[in-house]
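Lab notebook, bench 4. The sequencing result for the construct came back, and we need a structural model before the next group meeting so we can plan mutations. Quick request posted to the team channel:

Model the 3D structure of this chain.
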Amino acid sequence: MTRILPAALSVIMFALALLGPGSVIAQRFDRFDPDDWITLHDFRFVTSVAVSNEIAYFGTTAGVERFDTLRDRWLAPITTADGLPHERVTALVVDPTGGELWIGTARGVSRYTEFIGEVEHVFGPPPTFVEELKIDPKAGTVFAWVAGGWWRARVASPSMQRGPPPPHDARGSIDVDLVDPFDLPWTDPLHVESQADHFQSVRLTELFQDLRGDFYVGTWGDNGRRWGGARFEWEPLLFGLGGRGGGPIVETTDGMWFVPIDRSRASTRLAPVAIAFVDRDGSWSHVVPRTEPELPTALATSAAAAGDTLYLGSDYGLTRYAEGEWKTHGWTADPPIDTVTALHVDGPRLWVGTPRGLTLWDRETDQPTAQFLRGRSISALAVSDDAIFVGTNRGLYVGQRDPNGGAGFAPDSFVRTESRGSRIRALALRDTLLVVGTGVGLGVFNRSSGEWRFVAAVEGRLESPPLALAIDDQQVWVGTDRGLVRWRLTTGEWDVYRPADGLAGLPVRHLWATEDAVWASTPEGVSRFGWRQARR
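Done. Here's the predicted structure in token form:
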């Protein structure tokens, strides 16, 4: 797949909390109330489709996607973070008059009211696999096939009772296998070309035709499609992560990138997992490494951005994406870079951490200019105006800049400093406050006073060692294998957020903090927690 340009394939990877008010998914990404969660998963596997007068719903193995068909923009998904009893959606049906969406899941029936944006559990049917949903709009009745029997309810009721089967003209999502191929306007009734891999066809699953004559069709493995009744061609409707998650999050001036990590394929090195990107206009696109010769892997362990340029670090070296082109530097560099473990942009320079030391990279010439801390395995980086902090397998090192300018660092200018725990896992820096995550807990260094404060991994609500760190103007965010931890430094309060609160999964491997929210990347997906009122 060539480039992720708007002209080529729309856009790739991740969405952020600073998207503009007119953006496709900006409705929930930049406008939210305190304690608001939104979770992004791998929505590529579509099980059911339903369309109202305004919204097309795609039920997937990870929740429900919502696409505004009038404005051609994505809305926030409906997931377990919003109250769904299970992430696997098995059936959908929508009331065309009131707009209520009935959702069948692997653990029962739920109902979503579009006007108020709330999910409520439907009582009556057992909390088990829902095989089918139908609606009789004329009678205002919904039918659910659960546990070998039909259940029915009025569209406005949250309770169902056992009853007779639906009439023959009741509507619902249609299995493509049950449709007469001669009734479909496209050539291949069961397959469509993948947008993630030009050499692969994906299976169509369910379809629904709206009042305008457009078909909304799901696929198994490549999200949704729309067949325009007037255009006579497929239009990809891509949304969500290109894989399960667990990788770095980074923002460029163009939009946000989500880098998945398919650890089940880690031993194969080449991982056919798509990187996802969401543009400022809210459009999504994906890129698969095997379709980009200069993008050898999606197993990225670190990411950084400068303007609209993206840098990814992996076991193949340093990869750059700029002006529509991918370029990977590895053994071709001098000195060679085989594995990148940490990245940090520093003006015209880029700091590159590796298992064998720290490399200073000139971003203009795209070449390394100096090496430091040879023999040290670099795990984390933080940069200020006057110094760089380097986390290694042998402790924390600090390099002071040359006050006269230039690159500013001599080979012997990095000095080991005090830190509790020799192996540094993560660093976060804001103003004069440096937070250090190690295998035994947290260290907080006040650069103004020169004082350290240590918090052991069993102290307060820090139940396990930190894996990731982020810091904003009010608190420190800590990712662990037990949840997302919020530590308010001024009051000493601790909060822990788990999957039951809306977190996509465990462990939390990467964090990204914004002015009003924090993003947490886990193997099951990415969650954004809006901890205070977003500024309108």
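The chain has two helices and 46 strands.
Will bring this to the meeting.
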